[in-house]
């Protein structure tokens, strides 16, 4: 398969290391000069930028974590004045503060290049049409794939997410060769085609580039068969750039994705101690940006668990490969590609006087789609006002005040967190309470 930047993608390992070392030295000097957060981190440890001579010195530096981005909200981690920015993105979830990231024109150029590499690895070619069903907006997915596809010379259909019937119609009419979306949405589309009696061979799509949430070989098989495509994995996160940090090659598909290492230096560390782990061992994936200007980041703790290998892959690319994400170290849930923290749900519940913020989240997978049920208690005073003794579905349907409350909670969660939930109301005092230990508010019954 032709590569987008063959020279860089197959750079011999010693040359790649040399390039990384040189770029790292520049990036470190740059952040020390421009980002007070990093200057302090260096000074506190008695480190000078010149102490970091190459990637092997990275373990001397502390990690950067999500909380550091939250504490410097919105622009505290930026290395350029706002006039020099070209674009802002932010993580999904708007309750509490989102994590905001910025790009210069040059950063957007790099973003487009790494996504173009990813699309080419996934089977994309100039002149092919890409049906881009990733969400457009603050989320990096839609615009990220868009920029990369244009860079590669593809024809982009910026359909964004939702309105599945319309998507199916446009796929039939426009006949795109490739689709980009979350793996769960690809399954939804496959089901919609099936419902209409359209066979996979009749669907024009040949390739699918899927990411933003964890998935498995079983899901790959169902998408491959359901849409008649060869699906590959695209991985990324907004803090590093967005999608296109790594991608599988469509001819390998062994679950290993090439990390575009000349821009993002990967480490895998022990989740408990933070010590670097040897290749092949599962730990937390940590990235250092080597070329970013608006928001360079050193040793970013992704929370994603996986391993990497530097064995060159069959495609001839020399860059390290990472295995599919095996889980996360924090309490972040990914529901239909959207990042959700239970604390975001709590913040919404605190604003609704008719309920108490004792709740339980139950995640299941109905067919291809994640379903989230939120079980929560009606507040005592409201309960008395209603004059009900025991809540049941029939009672709730019969009493408008309860039915409205359920709708109100669902709408507020949708508006603030960006996901649809099924709300179940419980009698006061019946949600699980902490008994000193760690309360498990989330029951994740999805089988990955
Ligand atoms: P948002 O979705 O709110 O924009 P991010 O882009 O920062 O937020 O989400 C990044 C996270 O999504 C990653 O840290 C990882 O947990 C998850 N993710 C992204 N792509 C994949 C993938 N291909 N496989 C598994 N998890 C993924
Ligand atoms: K995500």
Q: Any overview of this molecule?
A:
The chain has helices at 6-9, 13-34, 36-44, 66-71, 105-121, 140-152, 164-174, 183-195, 217-227, 342-350, 380-386, 393-398, 400-417; strands at 87-90, 100-103, 129-132, 155-157, 178-181, 207-211, 230-237, 242-248, 256-259, 264-269, 283-289, 300-306, 308-309, 321-323, 327-328, 333-335, 338-340, 355-366, 369-378, 422-426, 442-444. It has 448 residues and is α/β, with parallel strands linked by helices. It has 2 domains: 6-330, ANL, N-terminal domain (Rossmann fold, 3-Layer(aba) Sandwich); 338-444, 2-Layer Sandwich (GMP Synthetase, Chain A, domain 3), CATH 3.30.300. The strands form 5 sheets. Strands 4-3-5-6-7-8-9-14-13 form a 9-stranded mixed β-sheet. A 4-stranded antiparallel β-sheet has the order 10-11-12-15. Helix 7 (164-174) crosses helix 8. The mean pLDDT is 93. Residues 91-92, 139-140, 211-214, 233-238, 302, 304, 325, 328, 334, 339 line the site of adenosine-5'-diphosphate (ADP). Adenosine-5'-diphosphate (ADP) binds next to strand 7 and strand 12. GO terms for molecular function: ligase activity. It holds the Pfam family AMP-binding.
Structure in a nutshell:
By secondary structure, this protein is of the alpha/beta class.
Blueprint of the fold:
Elements: H1 6-9, H2 13-34, H3 36-44, H4 66-71, E1 87-90, E2 100-103, H5 105-121, E3 129-132, H6 140-152, E4 155-157, H7 164-174, E5 178-181, H8 183-195, E6 207-211, H9 217-227, E7 230-237, E8 242-248, E9 256-259, E10 264-269, E11 283-289, E12 300-306, E13 308-309, E14 321-323, E15 327-328, E16 333-335, E17 338-340, H10 342-350, E18 355-366, E19 369-378, H11 380-386, H12 393-398, H13 400-417, E20 422-426, E21 442-444
